[in-house]
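FORM 7B: Structural annotation worksheet

SECTION A. Query
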Amino acid sequence: MRPTSRLFPILTAGFAAFAALTGPAKAQSTGNFSPVVIVNDSIVTRYELDQRIRFLKVLNFPGDLTAEAETGLIEDRLRSQAAKDMGVTVTPDELNAGMAEFAGRANLDTETFLKAIAQGGVDPESFRDFVRSGLAWRNAIRARFASKVDVSEAEVDRAVSADSGQGDGPRVLLSEIFIPARQGEVGRITTLTKRLKDTMKGEADFARAAKEKSVAASRADGGRVNWIPLSNLPPQVRDVVTKTSQGQITDPVQMPGYVGLFLVRGMSQGGKVSPAAVAIDYAALRLPAGASADAARIAGTAETCDDLYALAKGGAVSRQTQRRSQIGGATGAALDKLDAGESTVLSAADGTLTLLMLCSRNATLADGPIPPKMTITYPAQPVLTADGDVVPAVVDGVGLGLGVSRDQVREDVVNRKVGQMADAWLAELQGNAIITKK
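SECTION B. Predicted structure
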C-alpha cells in the first residue's frame, strides 16, 4: 500500500482499514481554484493540491511532496466516488471520533491538533473532509469485504508460529498497569488513569501504583515485564509505545475491558528471535515395548496434538510448553527436526516407546520463565492500600507478558486480508477511471 495510505489507520471492532488523505476541501479562504486533475467527473483544484502539500509538510512526510499530494488526491477521489456509489455515509459521531483518533496519534486532542495544523497553513475544514473521506472508505471496505473474510484456526496457528517469523524484529522492555473498565466506564476510568499517571515521577512511583491498582499478575513485581517482541503487543499498545521515549509513561490506552498505562524501560532493534526465547508446545504419548505398529498408526493418523488424546485409547499423553533451552537430550533434538503437526517415535533402553508431536513453536511470551497457570484466591478480608482503597484481585490471563492472544492474531490476519482486498479494489477503480491532468 502507498505511504500516504499508512498515515491514517482507522480502527474498527473487527479490523483496521488504512485510509487515504483528504477529500474535497470546502475552503473558506482565498486560493487558486483552477483544476489540476479531473478524476472521472470530479475536479481536484490547485487549492486542494496546495492544502495537501501543506498537510504533508505538517506531518513531516518525506519525498516529493507535490507528486505524493497529487497521487494521493487522485486515489482519494476514487475512494470517495466508490463510497458514494455504495451509499456509504459518515455520522457526526464517527467523524468526531475519527478526528480525535488521528489527533491522538500525535498525543494531542482534536482542538489542539487543529490549531497546530492551522499554523502550517492547513484549513481545519480540509482536515474534517480528510477524516470524513477516510471514514467513508473504511465503511465501504467493511461493507464490501467484511463478510468475505474467513480465518481458519490453521491460519492462526501459522501466524503465531516462530517458524513464520513471530517474535522477530524490535523488542521492548515495559512495565504495565491494567485497570478494569466495564462497558460504559471507559471514559471515567481513562480520566482517573490519566490522573494516576500525572502523580508518577518515575519507575518507583509506577511500581507502587502497579502493586496497588493493577489486576495483572505482574503487579507482584511492580508491573515489570521482561523483553517482549513489539509485534506481540496489541495494536493500540504498540502504537503508543513506539511513540514514547525510554523512561517515559504512555498516556492511558483503552483496550477491551481495561485501560492500561505502560512505562517504557528499554528498547532494542532485536532481529531474529533467539532459540532460547522460543516456547515449544509439544505432546508425548508413552507406549509399551513392542507397540511399534500402534505408534506408526497413531503417527500416521494424528494431524494435531489434540488428536492424540482420542487415538491413544488409554495411553498416557502429556502435553507441556517449555523454552527450548529447557528441553534437553533426545527429546529436544527430535523436536528440532519437526514442523507443527509432525511426530516422531523415540525408543528407550527398556524398549518402551515415546511418540513425540510438535504442537507449535512460538515466541509470543515475554522473556524469562514460562508463566504458570495462575490459581486465583480471594482473601476473606479485602487488602487495603495506605489510602484505604481496596487492592483489586489479579485477573487470570491479563498482562502483556502472557503474549499475543489468538483473538488478536486472528484480527491481524483479517486486517491483512482486508487490506489486500482494498488494495486490489483501488487498483481496479484506477484502471477503470478516466484521469486527466491539466
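SECTION C. Observations
Confidence is low (pLDDT under 50) at residues 1-30, 373-380. The longest helix spans residues 406-432.

SECTION D. Sign-off
Analyst initials: ____
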